[in-house]
Each structure stands twice: as structure tokens, then as C-alpha cells.
Amino acid sequence: MDLFADAVPANQPLAARMRPRNLEEYVGQDHIVGVGRLLRRAIDADQLSSLIFYGPPGTGKTTLARVIAGSTQSRFVTLNAVLTGVADIRREISDAKDARDLHSKRTILFVDEVHRWNKSQQDALLPWVENGTVILIGATTENPYFEVNKALVSRSRVFQLTALQDEHLAQVARLALADQERGYGNWTVEFEEGALEHLVKVSSGDARSLLNALQLAVETSPERFPPPKGSRITVSLAAAEESIQKKAVLYDKEGDYHFDTISAFIKSLRGSDPDAALYWMALMIRAGEDPRFIFRRMLISACEDVGLAAPEALGVVESCAAAFDRVGLPEGQFHLTHAALYLATCPKSNSALGFFDALKAVDEERNKDVPNHLRDDSRDKHSFGHGEGYKYPHAWRDHWTAQQYLPDGLAGRVFYRPGHLGHEGVVRDTVISRREAQVAAMLETDESQPGEVLTYSPGDDERERWVRRTESRQETLALAIRHALYQHWSPQRHHRILILADPAGALVWEAHRRVPEGGVTALCPNTKAYDALSWLAGGLPVSERPRFQRGVLPDSSLVKELTEQDQRYDHIIARNWLANMGDENTKNQALHTLRHLAAEEAVILLAEPRPEAGTTLSQLIPAHLIAAPHFKKFQAAERIVHASLTPQKGQDQIIQQFSEAGWNVVMEPMSAKEQRILSPPLLEAWFSTDRMGSYGQRMSQELGQDLWQELSKTLLSVLTGQKVTWETAFWRINGVRTS
Predict the structure, then answer these.
(1) Phi and psi (nearest 5°) for 507?
(2) Do strands 663-677 and 723-737 pair parallel, antiparallel, or not at all (unpaired)?
(3) d(CA 301, CA 350)
(4) Among 141, 269, 302, 413, which is 20 to 30 Å from 291 by CA?
């Protein structure tokens, strides 16, 4: 009986027969080909550029390339880097040029195991990728940034495929068991408890390994395969265990996994996680890694990551390494473990990196002369006075005295930043107090060159904070609010973003930059905003542009468009969204709608105004310029106007409102400042009573038209042309969708 009659050859492995034919059948890698992701949009629009798929075996690299082949109008050609040479490349390039010139057809060239091509083969392809004769799709299990021609990588977009999760593998197995044409859907296949779960678990994210094991388990269970259609096939746990042997550790001592694993081990030591450190070390030992290599890396870590916080760490690791040389394996595993556990559990300091700050100063600064008092006085003390003024520390109490040791021009430069932990925490106060004394001594004696005395090395936290504060004062208001809103926001590159309201357009482009493999959808309340943002996006390829939609929530037709193909959003962002929403019923409906649009554990990030907490005009004008009774009325009216622009609910009530709509949020008061020149047009626009809802119209209502006209004239004469620091206060509302 032919199991796959009239379909695919029955002698093909199950993994080949079940290879997905389109994106709907493709399982996993949602971060790359999920609805709304960049690659999915490019495939749907048939606007592919050169691609490289990188990931472990069995994750769907070749399958994804074949799916693309079935979705594009271009010619699709396949080469295997192991079996082809330069002559094959030249032949395919010639055919691609003919297809382009004679039939106006593009060519997609898929190269499996592209890392196995040597430099000359990759160079032979490069110019034709560059001029667009072929679109390259490469697949590799090795890191392309190390193993593939840099010029080729720079002209391609690299997508990293990850090992499939257990739920993905279970879905692959169910599809194979249900498919009557290519799988085992013509029979009822049952598994003993734990049998299928064992196949999924031991496959370790490799769909090909799972399907091969599933085929072996199913087809060896009955006495003779295939049985009649409709028969029952039972797979025992023993058969499942025999079908998939213990998976070999995926580790290449000369390749990418080697470097990734040792990196994970060192980072676990640095992060003080002894459990992870033991796991990665056990993986390396089981894979046959040289223990001396592991010891060498731990010797480095003892100084780089532990340093003076526990200065004895270097001696501990060195002693363990020496003991290992005497004992060897397997008993030497105890010495490896001893050293790793010590490094993982002792206090940490990276202050030794100060050397590289000093090295940078040496490279960037011109050579500095040794200060005269530090020069050698054994040869020319009498002729040149070398060494004169040197203070011998041992002649002083505590064997220390303040004097300059760095060259002029670098005096006071800080390279060593002592940590707070362990031994270094004990000496920290001494080091800092002595620095202060040295600076004071230099100032008093005026021995240093003029200019800044105490500076901070690159990377110093206090210096970084100062730079950020300085830069933020130079930003426009919109960028300052964006900075405050996004400063702790960390989306993943493949996430989907929905921007509900963005008055200045500043939120869209930064979000777009942060999710290059994902996608941004922005709502535009009117045609003017839609046209402006669409025009700005016009320079990008169609598949890489943010998606702009006219309308505002909770409009049902808009919701339908946003959720096409069951798309859900990982992050929802807006500025002044609730403030412009209208009545409370509309707000409640919009918040419930958002939950429907959001993915599980989606993040919401809003900036909502607090006008009562920001700068007011009554703060900018001297009180004596307006009669006291009028000034008090002016202040009272401003408070009323600002209160009318502020949500009537208190902070706790707003949080409760979000909670009832399915969102767990916190509200943080924030502000943004800008330097603002109060020009006549700006003030006149504020003070005008002609525009409904304007500041002037509201103030006129509170004060009466006559008094407001009188006050507005005074304000115009006093404030016109002033440069003021204007503070805008707002709530940063941050939270997640509840389950």
C-alpha cells in the first residue's frame, strides 16, 4: 500500500514530506514571520531584499526559503554551498541576467550552508548581489558576522531563527499525525502517557529530529507497516525512547557555539549566578572542552570581574588550576567546580577597567612630561634640579601625603573608580578622601595647568547623568517628553507597536528605529496628520514603512482594520490620548477596546498632561505689576482653567479605571523643560478669546471680558520677547495587560 499515493513519494522521510508549503503551515519563528513583522510584510508585498537566515539545525531556515519561493513571482534557484563552485555561480548569474533582460524577471538565489563557501566563491557572488541581478537568501548554522564575507553581510538583512519551543514541536507532531496526504491521518495513532512528550522534550527545539523520531516510532510499532486504513497504532513509551536516542551536545570547539557557551559561562560568573555557571561549565566538559581553557578564562575573570573586591580570588583560581594539573580528570572536576563557585559567589568589581581609560588617555593626549618632582634625581639633580620638591611619603604620618603624581594637563583625572563591595568597599573611602586632598593641594599651590582640575573617565555614572541632563535641556518639548516617556522602555526588535496618539510625530520614528524586524502602526486623527506622516515615510521601502491608519478609538471599523489576520500588539503608546478622549464612557470603552487589541502581557505606555503642575503665566509675571486684587483673581482663574483640563478622577481612581478595563498600571509624575521665547504671535494666540477652548477664552469666562482684556494687555507688554524655561508636567502611565 502506498502511503502517499498521488501526492509525494512514500520513500521520502516524514520531515521532507511534512515540509510547510506556505506561511500558514509554517510553525514557530513568530518574531520573524508573525503577522505584522517586517519579513512577513516583505513576503506579502513581494519586495524582498537579500536575506541571511541564521540559527541551529531544524529551526526552519531552508523551509522558510522554500515558502518564500512559493510566494514570490521571481525565479527561485537553489544551490548548496558544499556541492557548488565558482563555475556554478557564474552559470546561475548568466541565467539570472537573461531572465532579467529577456523576461523582466527577478531571480532569488537560495544558498544553503552559505558559510561553507570560501572567500573566492563569496566574492564571485558579491557584485551581482550589489547590483540587484540576484537576490540572495543564505542559510547558515554559523554566526554570519564571523563566517560570511563582511561585504555580503552588509548588503543583506540577517534574521536569527531560534530553537522551537515545546509547544511548537507539539504542534508539528499534531499536524503530521492529522495529515492524510503526507502524514499519518489515515490511522488513529495513540501514545502511551509521556511518550509523545518524551519525543518533544528530547528533540530540543529541532523539528527535523522530532519528525524523524516520530516516523521511526510510528512505523516500527505495528508488526507490519502500513496497516489497513482506519487501524489503531499505539506508540509505547519504550518505543519512543528507542526512537530518539540521547541528543548529542551541540557544541563545536572551533565554532560559534564554543564562543557562545564560554561567553555564557563567564557572564554567569560575572552575574553571581552559581547555578548557571555550573550548567554552562558542565556542558563544556561534557562536550570535551579543554579544562585548561576554562581555567584560563576564570583566571581572567578573577581580575576583570572580581578584582580588588576579593583580591584573594586570583590565588584561589591559580591554586585550583595547579591542583588540576596534578590530579587531572575525572577528579579534577572538583577543582573546576571549586574555582567556579568561588568566583560566582564572591563580591565583584570591574575597577581594573580603569586601565583602559588610562590607555585611551595615552592614545588621545600628546605625550606628557614627567613632573619635575617625580623625575629621577640620581643623575642630574644638581644641574637641572630634577626631583626637587618631592615629598617622601614614608616621612609623613600614615605614610602618605598629598602631592601631584599625574602629568600637568592630566592632573586630577580619575581612572580608578573603587567599588562598594568586599575589600574594595573598605579602601573606597580612603581613596576618595585622598583624591579630595590632592585636588585641594593642587589648588592651593597652583602647580597644575589652568582649566578643569577634576574630570571623570568615560563611562562614569555621574558624568553620564550630567551629559544626559545637559542634552535634554537642548531638546524641543516633544523630544523631551519622548525622552522621558521612552527612557526605561525596552522593546524587542521584532515587537509590534501601536501608537494611539502622537501630536508631534516624535513617538513614531523612535519606535520605528527600535523595532527593525517588527512593525509600527500609528493612528492619525485627521487627514492632515495622515498626509504629513505618510510623506515622511515615503523615502522608505513599502514593506519597511510604519503603517498609518486614519481614525481614533474606539471606532469599530478602525478596530476591525487593526486586527486583520488576528494581529495583536506588544506595545501600545500614546501622548495626550486620554486627555482628548472626551467623556468617561468613551474613555472606558476605549480602554476595554485596547485590551482586545493587545497581545498577552502587552505593555501600555502613555503620557497624559498635568497642566496644574507645570509652568503658569502667573508664575512668570511679577505680582507688583498688577493690582493685588486683580492678581489674586488672575491666579484663581488660572487654577480653575487648569483644573478643567485635568482629569476629574484622582490618581487612585484612574488606576482603578485601568484595572477594570484589564490593565495593571502605575502612574509616575514627570516633567519636561524647554527654553521658550514668548513671541507676540504665540502670546496673542494664547490670549485670544475667538477660539473655543483656548486659554484666553476660558480665562475670559472666569474673569469677565473687560478684566481679561485689561490683564492680557499687561501680560503682552511684560512677557513679549522674554526667554523662559517652560516646564510641562505629565503623568507617565506604564503597565501591562492582565491575563
Answers:
(1) -75, -35
(2) antiparallel
(3) 10
(4) 141
Question: Looking at the chain, which residues constitute the CATH 3.40.50.300 domain(s)?
Answer: 29-160
pLDDT over 50 at 201, yes or no: yes
List, as one string, the DSSP characters of 260-297.
HHHHHHHHHHHTT-HHHHHHHHHHHHHTT--HHHHHHH
CATH code of the domain occupying 29-160: 3.40.50.300
- Name 235's bridge partners: 191
pLDDT for the residue 447: 36
Prior bond to 127 cis, omega within 30? no
Domain 473-610+647-675+728-739 -> CATH class: alpha beta
Any idea what the Cα angle at residue 603 is, between residues 600 and 609, rounded to 5°?
145
> Which part of the chain has CATH 1.20.272.10?
256-348
The SS3 call for residue 181 is coil
DSSP 624-647: GGS-HHHHHHHHHHHHHHHHHTS-
Model confidence, pTM: 0.58
Element counts in the chain: helices (H) and strands (E): 32, 14
Q: Contact at 8 Å (CB) between 688 and 696?
A: yes
Cα–Cα–Cα angle for 512, 159, 495, nearest 5°? 35
Residue spans in the chain of domains classed CATH 1.10.3710.10: 352-445
Q: Which three cell numbers stand for residue 409?
A: 594637563
The answer to whether residues 298 and 335 touch, using CB atoms and an 8 Å cutoff, is: no
d(CA 583, CA 561) in angstroms, rounded, equals: 25
Tens digits of residue pLDDT in 207-257: 888 898 888 888 886 666 778 888 888 888 888 877 776 544 555 555 666
Burial of 594-615, coded b for 16+ CB within 10 Å and e otherwise, reads: bbebbbeebbbbbbbbbbebbb
Domain 352-445 of CATH type 1.10.3710.10: yes
Each residue's pLDDT tens digit, 479-536: 788 888 898 899 998 999 999 988 767 788 889 888 888 899 999 888 877 877 776 6
CB atoms within 10 A of CB 391: 12
Residue 89 and residue 51 in contact, taking contact as beta carbons nearer than 8 Å: no
Query: For the chain, how many residues are written?
Result: 739
Residue 573 has a pLDDT of 95
> pLDDT tens digits for 672-700?
877 777 777 778 877 888 777 678 888 88
Average pLDDT for the chain: 79
628 or 172, higher pLDDT: 172
Of 641, 475, 625, 646, residue with least CA distance to 576: 646
Under 8 Å between Cβ of 720 and 584: no
What pairs with residue 181 in β-bridges? none
Distance CA 219, CA 423 (A): 65
What CA–CA distance (Å, rounded) separates 227 from 219?
A: 10
pLDDT mean over 391-406:
67
Q: How confident is the model at residue 395 (pLDDT cuts 50, 70, 90)?
A: low
Mean pLDDT, residues 37-57 taken together: 85
Task: Give CATH 3.40.50.150 domain extents, the chain.
Answer: 473-610+647-675+728-739
Give the residues across from 77 on adjacent strands.
109
DSSP 542: G
Q: What fold, for 256-348?
A: Zinc Finger, Delta Prime; domain 3 (1.20.272)
Cα 180-186-189 angle, rounded to 5 deg: 110
Angle at 701 between CA 695 and CA 702, to 5 degrees: 90
pLDDT in tens, 99-132: 888 888 888 888 888 888 887 888 888 888 888 8
Is residue 210 within 8 Å of 177, Cβ to Cβ?
no
Per-residue pLDDT tens over the stretch 27-38? 888 888 888 888
Residue in 33, 10, 15, 13 with CA at minimum distance from that of residue 207: 15
Nearest to 496 by CA among 603, 639, 397: 603
Asked whether 343 and 302 are in contact (CB, 8 A), the reply is yes
